[in-house]
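Lab notes, practical 5.
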Amino acid sequence: MAAKSPESSAWPKVLGRGSYAEALRIGEILRKETVGGALLVAAAVVALIWANSPAADSYFALRDFTIGYEPWHLELSLGAWAADGLLAVFFFLVGLELKREFVTGDLRSPRKAMVPVAAAVGGVVVPALIYAAINWGSPETLRGWAIPTATDIAFAVAVLAVIGSHLPSALRIFLLTLAVVDDLIAIAIIAFVYTEEIHTTALLLALIPIALYAFLVQRFRRFFGQHHVALWVVLLPIGIVAWALVHASGIHATVAGVVLGFTVPVVRSQASGGPEAGPGLAEIFEHRIRPVSAGFAVPVFAFFSAGVAIGGVDGFVSALGDPAAVGIIAGLVLGKPIGIVGTTWLMSKLTRAELDRSMKWVDLLGISILAGIGFTVSLLVAELSFGLGTPENDHAKVAILAASLLAALLATVVLRARNRHYRRIEAEEKVDADGDGIPDVYQGEDTA
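Output from the prediction step:
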């Protein structure tokens, strides 16, 4: 057999296993997100039942109850507080994860990052184009073109945990990468598309607490040592001030969470007072904040956002007849797999990146269908597009819920069969012949 050329072997496999350390880290993240996904679904179900019960008025009264301080542009309904405030915690974690992936994760290599990032972009562009094509003649609904572009990682991982317990970690990593990258794209869309007016003074003032926050987290060991409680006491108020000023500037406040997340160091450096390189503050923050995000912030947002008065079967049918709803369902259920699989196939033809020999294209299809579960960010973009409580927003919510459920069911059909296949070969994946604690499959040539 002819040996591979160096140029050919330099391209990592699509859906390759990657490094063992990365597989362990991603596995830990996904376990936490699984619990969060279950809570998210439960909160959405409770909201739907309450909003369509005889006590529906009390649900909407609670969601629309206003509290806050108007001079700071913070007199908001509880639903708005959940969308603008609690989701900032979620997006802070997105910022941490993005930075960590590109600094120390498998995506720090441009060649490793190229295919999954391109696939994520395809999974954003194609659903948006499908939605736009369906709603081209309606300027009112065309505003919602970005709704079907996002993947809800918590919801998707919760489904994956139930239907795919034996699926290879490479598939889970690929799903997480897709979700993280399209979250980044969604952040950019929120910041640049759905910002109608920018108040320059507030935005410039926001740079002060953001810069101070960045300075402190980069040198946290020098100032705080191991006293993490003192660190939180100082950083939390600074972060809240930065969030409030970004909110007052007219840019959606969740962007503040991402920006602050980007400032946190991923690896320890001499500047932070550490004696040598190692895990940075991002790991500490992620460990402390992810349970708050997955266990409280995102489920509460889902509770206030998923509640919609459907109006029985007739109301459901009427909602799905809205062009916006048709565009959302087509974008999520059809656009996501077409964009992800199509872009990955195209990249395999344009580069020397090949599908790992242990995987099949049907595996990628199943994961890409699962990526059509667009919940948290989709609901947020729907509110930004149409406004809370409007008929268009209610129809969009129904479509997002219906599309997410349909995507989950279709992915279950595909991935359950693949799960049975991988269960039969799972024992081979755990072989550690040399006893070094790392399974042998992570030490082959395809894991470089």
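Observations recorded by the TA: Confidence is low (pLDDT under 50) at residues 1-9, 270-276. The first helix runs from residue 6 to 9.
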